[in-house]
Amino acid sequence: MRAVDAVMECLKAEGVDVVFGLPGGANLPTYDAFVNGGIRHILVRHEAGGGHAAQGYAKATGKVGVAFATSGPGATNLITPICDAMMDSVPVVFITGQVRTELLGTDGFQEADTLGITIPIVKHSFMIQDPKEIPRAIHEAFYIARSGRPGPVLVDIPQDLSRGEIEYEPVTDVRLPGYQPTTDGNQKQIRQAAKALAAAIRPVIYAGGGVVNANASEELVEFATSDRFPVTCTLMGLGGFPAPHEQWLGMLGMHGTRAANYAMDEADLICAVGARFDDRITGKLSEFAPKAKFIHIDVDPAEISKNVPAHIPIVGDAKLVLAKLLIEYRALGVDPARLGAWWERIEGWREKYPLGFQDSTDKEIKPQYMIQALYEATGGEAIVTSDVGQHQMWAAQYYDFPAPRRWINSGGLGTMGFGLPAAMGAAVGCPERLVCCIAGDGSVQMNAQELATCAQNEIPIKVFIMNNGYLGMVRQWQELFWDGKYSQVDTGKFPDFVKLAEAYGATGMRFEDKTTLVEDMKRAIATEGPVVVDVRVTREENTYPMIPAGQAAREMVG
Amino acid sequence: MSVMGEPGTKEPLSLEELQASTGLRTGRKHVLSILVENKSGVLTRIAGLFARRGFNIDTLTVGPTDDEQISRVTLTVDGALHPIDQVTKQLHKLINVLKIRDLEPGDTVTRELALFKVSADGAQRGELMQIAEIFRGKVVDVTKRSVIVEVTGTTEKIEAFESMVRPFGLIEMMRTGEIAISRGRSET
């Protein structure tokens, strides 16, 4: 069998139903195998679009996403998606072409040291040195990508090796002696955690993207509601605990709610589940949750005590650990009434500092209202992707995600241009669901070319551009922290997004009137095929509340 | 690493008694003996990890083991500057890393080889050779104006020898970095 046909067989054996990619010289053999390979291939317009689409697919479905690119510039265009997948623990396998082995190291045409360049940003990578290695490498790549803490894995295949003939036998065993993720969780530690939670009088559960990755949402809800534990989620964890909910405090961190941040500040015990104490959560590390002891549940032992020392570390899969924790906790028979005073305090913050904004009194669309309108127009049931910036934070604040895998964004790396291709991937993975992208007018142009992919393949994403004509978050920081001197943030009126959409074969619309916005959005959603909506919002509006960078939760402004 | 927060027998549990396990800076040199799969790029992965996380490698040696598919990396890290548990946990995440041992100084034999090229003419040569003998060094090359001495030993011994010969005029010095093996019957 041709090695490239074996690649197709491997993909099928791994349950891959779609890949995103773009061919070139070094992966021509592989693309020949796609002709009759029985794998759906979506031709993207830029490899970064393909990489982010694979991420969106993976995040929406929980399966491993796959992206293909050729050598050199094809591979380097994947750098951002690879790094993004690393930061947000997204299972994606990237398969790149490489120049012929005889050209390796000679600066051949379209040669790049893909393996070397990507080493710091992959979970693992394979450089094929013999065609016979290909099936095992691909299967191991999938195994590594999806197990433990998920992440990106790269397989680099030189062109001549991909043309080799090999005996293909499905690989069912992976031999990775240096890779054995701990998933069970130490029972003694779990018991200790249960006891600590029972003893706590101001506990908070702080859940992150790990809960979503581990499909541990149900277990989290069950555990949190086995008592009256207040729950807050990180940006990546949204939907991991259903919002709204009486025990839901809202998101925490830089643009989180005061209730969530103040609760962390006063907590005596914080139970972190699949979260990594990122600087956007902790703010000033030395003043983060000063009164708290920490239980830290994470499948990646290196995250435990990395930024904040854990008192009870539990290495394990969130789903398994939470299920065991629930059993241990129930056995203690704790009286939920002990949390009465704590809830009174929290309710006080909730009442005093609800999320809010000064709405317009005319037709002007406030950006926060735009999110509320979309929530209403979608019934809160859409998969929502976003780019990075103000619109992302407002989406996180004002769109209540009722379930996991509904909120897909670039948290760790903060990649502008992520939302549109991620929406494309999510829509391919979940064709039965409505997929909306909340984009920024700055961000969306970084991968707008994928509208052509959407039009060609009839991928019906609905892109709502929050258009304020600014790189809004940078503008906000310049306003607040750089004396209001705006430097290179005004994007003017360009481009005309309606015309741009039409040029790509999508439907373009422009909404400027608050009073009809919900109905207009419903109309956009009901329109077939990909739709781009240019929503004109207030130009200068700030995202609040906010913990200024490097400050403590107590210092929240706005 | 020690397991913190073992369940006690006291009920109810008091949160105040919980001790945090953290990236403590131990303040001493650590010798990490690492078994890795002998695959291309392994050293880059390790070196890259140290660079990216801001960990300094003091010395690094790589060599074969009795199994040709496995190599051993011995590296030393300053535990005063870096949280060793974070260093080892990050290393463990590398798929090609099979085993890491943070060798206890008391239970470990460490050796380093160094070559010193020292300027020494007739008058000084005798004195230099005497010093070399005290350090159980070996003179491996002599010219009219220089002597090369080979010294094996712990880092401390090498450094002591260096300070002794420096006044003669140290032309060059080559050091291998430490290798280490655990004492006793069990494998390193």
Care to describe what's here?
The complex is a heterodimer of chains A (558) and B (188). Chain A folds into 3 domains: 3-162, Rossmann fold (3-Layer(aba) Sandwich), CATH 3.40.50.970; 187-352, 3-Layer(aba) Sandwich (Rossmann fold), CATH 3.40.50.1220; 367-536, Rossmann fold (3-Layer(aba) Sandwich), CATH 3.40.50.970. Helix content of chain A is 37%, strand content 16%. Chain A is built from 22 helices and 18 strands. Chain A has helices spanning 3-13, 28-35, 47-61, 73-76, 79-87, 114-118, 134-146, 159-162, 187-199, 209-213, 217-226, 258-266, 279-282, 318-332, 340-352, 367-378, 390-398, 419-429, 450-456, 472-481, 497-503, 517-526; strands at residues 18-21, 40-43, 65-69, 92-98, 124-127, 152-158, 203-207, 231-233, 248-251, 269-273, 293-298, 312-315, 383-386, 407-408, 435-440, 462-467, 507-511, 531-536. In chain A, helix 22 links the parallel strand 17 (507-511) and strand 18. Chain B is α+β, with helices and mostly antiparallel strands and 188 residues long. Chain B folds into 2 domains: 24-106, 2-Layer Sandwich (Alpha-Beta Plaits), CATH 3.30.70; 108-182, ACT-like. Chain A, domain 2 (Alpha-Beta Plaits), CATH 3.30.70.1150. In chain B, strands 5, 6, 7, 8 and 9 form a 5-stranded antiparallel beta sheet that branches. Chain B has a 4-stranded antiparallel beta sheet with strand order 2-3-1-4, covered by helices on one side. The A-B interface holds A 115-116, 119-120, 123-125, 127, 129, 144, 176-179, 186, 188-189, 191-192, 195-196, 198-200, 268-269, 293-294, 300-302, 305-306, 309-313 and B 3-7, 11-15, 18-23, 36-37, 40-41, 44-45, 48-49, 52, 85-86, 89-90, 92-98.
